[in-house]
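User: Batch of two.

Assistant: Item 1 of 2:
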Amino acid sequence: MSRIGDVLRNKNRVEKLNKQRQQEDMINIKKEAKFKAALSNDLRHLDVLLDGEGIDGVIMEIANEHLTNFARAIIYSTELADYEIEQLEANKFRFRKKLLIF
């Protein structure tokens, strides 16, 4: 009988861990989706600023909590491919329009 109890306790422990992982994954997915939406919105504003006359670049400060998401977006996102991004400080970046010369 004690063997059955051990099996049930282990099963409950595994189910609890799986549920906890799923909740953490959902939280991460929601955070990433919010970041991507905010980034897309900020890029629209950035385009308007950079299209203005006499503006060479825009310096943006990224919150420390979003630095890893931003670094991932620089590497993998096609939205940021149109910009030349230069890191000035740990969390300050200069954005410029990328010039294509044929």
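Item 2 of 2:
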Amino acid sequence: MLNSDRRSTAALQLPSPRPIEFCTIELCPLADGHFAVAVKHTVFDDAAFELVDQDIASARAVTLNEVMALVADSLRTAFSPLSPPLPHLL
């Protein structure tokens, strides 16, 4: 049986897509046994239609505990409601 009520299908609205936003954690072992750590935030720029990276933190760490503390602190600071907005969100 065919659906003759076209109003019900025309009223169907798809939700708007969520903006693309994610963080990347780069961890690299160094020759001296330490670690290089970088935390980046990536968003989609609607106007330029491209992904834009922003460095949140970059440091050297001696232990994996220091690495985890650096990552946690940088993400907590960057996304805290009290922190200033990231430049791409202005």
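The helical segments are 6-10, 64-78.
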